[in-house]
Amino acid sequence: MSTGSPSRGLAAVLMVAVFLAGAAAGAAGLALGQRAFGGEGGRRGRPLEHLSRELRLDPAQRREIGVILVRQRERMRPMFEETRQEIRAVLRPDQQARFDALPRPGGRRRLRTFAP
Question: What is the pTM of this model?
């Protein structure tokens, strides 16, 4: 004997389908991002080396692209910091301590708590 209506069952199936589609899209995006920015094969955090090798950059191109990457990293730093602060605000104190010890972008670790 069924306890729910057919429309409830359809809604549940649709929710699961949407969830699975989102998970698949997220996994595909992660894989593409890792491939594009060097997350696989030991290239993590070294996009200049990856580009240099794949594109056979000459020294002048390597210097110019290095400057671009440093400038972009500096532009993105405040956004990463704001995101980390927002995430940290959701966590319990025990989770915050573990979160603070996680590696930060650029391979740095932050051992103290965020300052407001």
Answer: 0.44
